[in-house]
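retry 2 of 3: previous attempt timed out while embedding DP6. Reduced batch size to 1 and resubmitted. Inputs unchanged:
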Amino acid sequence: MVSVARSSANIALVKYWGKRDAKLNLPLTGSISLTLKELETQTAVEFDPALEDDELELNGKPADKAATEKVTKFLDLIRTRALIQTRARVLSTNTFPTASGLASSSSAFSALALAASTAAGLLLPPPTLSELARRGSGSAARSIFGGFVEMLPGVLSDGTDAVAVPIAPQDHWDVRIVVGVTTLASKATSSTDGMESTTRTSPYMPVWVQTQDRDLNVMRRALLDRDIQRVGELMEHNALKMHAAALAAQPGVLYWNGRTVDLMHAVYGMRKEGVPAYFTIDAGPHVKVFCLARDAEHVGRTLASVPGVQRVITCAPGAGAELIEQRDSLFAARMTV
Ligand code: DP6
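retry 2 succeeded.
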């Protein structure tokens, strides 16, 4: 059975940064995100008895050993649940630059969780899919759902309560995230490594953890109230606090480049002119600007005018993970995206 799923990446408005259990990938705190329509992964999975090892193709090219091993570890979780040993062929395509801080692991593991579990004959409900996606990447647990989503850190040691839950649907608020892509190169430090080193060595880590619940409570309320100023100011504060903790690790974890800082100033400039636009930055150098749909064009033009900015991508709220195709045949036809 071949299953094809699509899933959109999400951007955290209140960040996940730090784990309470690295093996089960359990977060230290909750987080809140927005799923983004335009940043999409499509993944096809076929379990094939003729295969000796799992095969992974990313954006039309065979993946490297490390990525394939990560996928094999993830597929093992599904094989254990489905009581099978069959190896799988996985084809995955992104509509945006992979491993560049555009949170591609969130859509990747969310799409893989849905496609692979379905191909293995499992029919998992969204909370179970979220728990499964989390094992691949913490942020992927949120991409199972559309719109505004909260990841619960859970308290159980087996992680069954560390799942995402929807806060408000995709059509709750007509907002945009405008991404200023500052480089096409891959990032230097993965989020997994960056948060491990921050947790172990940053003196600011305890403060980060202690202040998360307050940020989550205020953000949840502000999102439900569609209060752009409260959402935006808190989102910016939370991102800067995460980066301050990472910068204070030993050695410091710095994700920004010069254009990142230029874009932050451009956002401050727009606010001075009265445009409610606010930035957030993940484990990479790109700047993601939250604004109302009516201001997105102006924001996009302003970001594009900053020297060195490679590309601007405007994203609307998106849907959760969905199955787009299921068929019995072997992979004669390649997936078309
Ligand atoms: C800065 O989900 O990529 O984007 O669980 O180790 O795979 P792993 O980490 P990942 O971390 C995302 C970090 C972030 C913030 C966020 O998305 O909440």
